[in-house]
Amino acid sequence: xxxxxxxxxxxxxxxxxxxxxxxxxxxxxxxxxxxxxxxxxxxxxxxxxxxxxxxxxxxxxxxxxxxxxxxxxxxxxxxxxxxxxxxxxxxxxxxxxxxxxxxxxxxxxxxxxxxxxxxxxxx
Length: 123
What we know:
Elements: E1 3-7, E2 10-12, E3 18-25, E4 33-39, E5 46-51, E6 58-60, E7 68-73, E8 78-83, E9 92-99, E10 112-113, E11 117-121
């Protein structure tokens, strides 16, 4: 059974930090590109960040560039999103997604999705 399980979300004050994790199982994680996609209430999915299978190429939406860092540990089948300098507009459900063909730079076209973890940035 394929699973992507996100964790690490929560309530944080503006300017704070969170580290999201996404643990993968049931497929060959190391050959998949991985992305983080977020969705705020009333909005469509917004691609946030992506990383290719080898981990050497990373990509970020302009809205998070310089504040978020994506990484992966293929030995642990896990992808991470370090989020610093959080803003209220970062509030959303954050999903990880896996793709073997689609470049990890879009909000759609993925083979697998996780259920998401809620991130709320508020004072």
